[in-house]
Write a structure and sequence with these properties.
Elements lengths: L3 H15 L5 E7 L7 H21 L4 H19 L2 H7 L2 H18 L10 E7 L4 E6 L1 H4 L8 H12 L3 H19 L14 E3 L1
Parallel strand pairs: 1-2, 1-4
Antiparallel strand pairs: 2-3
Length: 202
């Protein structure tokens, strides 16, 4: 998704942003927040349940034949709907948002953004398959910065990812977050770098 050169651009943007604030910025981009493998199975089961109903009323075929057709319908439907190009289109949008949000929170905790000295960690997260981006901030930041303040950064990321420019989206989001953090959390006398400056690709 992101080449080495673009990765370095994002890392450089993080360093520049953190030079102006005591906040800590960390970036994660995921191909997908879930495999959603049960969704095709659920749809295939529904189709398989409907097949006998139709055949019983419209044909005089024996139960054994109907059973084999039911089994075939299940296997064929599950196979087709399990193709990545199809699978991510049949998952309800709300389900995708919930999974992506849960993954963002998991990444926030996994990379220790909740462990900074003044609770000033910020995760910039994007999940490509879900076309979802969000910014998760720790308690110290949420106490001063309204959640709506991140909306323009998130919108810019989503547009860039849709256009196939994820690195541009991250650089823009990092710069906007850095500017916002600099207003509320200027660098201290000792501006320690508590977290690695990096973009994690999952």
């Amino acid at each position: 998704m992101i080449g080495e050169g673009d990765m370095q651009r994002v890392v450089g943007a993080i360093r520049a942003a953190e030079a102006r604030t005591s906040g800590e910025i960390f970036c994660v981009i995921a191909h997908a927040s879930s495999s959603y493998r049960l969704v095709p199975i659920a749809w295939a089961a529904l189709v398989a349940l409907l097949v006998p109903l139709v055949l019983i009323y419209l044909t005089t075929w024996p139960a054994g034949t109907i059973y084999l057709l039911q089994l075939g319908a299940f296997i064929a439907t599950a196979g087709i709907l399990s193709l990545p190009a199809v699978r991510f289109r049949i998952v309800p949008r709300q389900t995708m948002r919930r999974r992506a949000h849960a993954e963002a929170v998991r990444q926030f905790l996994a990379h220790g953004l909740h462990l900074t000295e003044h609770r000033t960690g910020v995760l910039i997260f994007a999940s490509v398959a879900e076309r979802h981006a969000e910014i998760v901030a720790d308690g110290g930041i949420n106490a001063k910065v309204d959640a709506g303040a991140w909306e323009s950064s998130i919108a810019a990321m989503i547009v860039a990812i849709k256009d196939g420019r994820p690195a541009d989206g991250f650089v823009s989001a990092v710069e906007q977050c850095g500017a916002l953090l600099a207003r509320h959390f200027p660098p201290g006398a000792i501006n320690r770098d508590e977290l690695p400056n990096k973009l994690v690709v999952m």
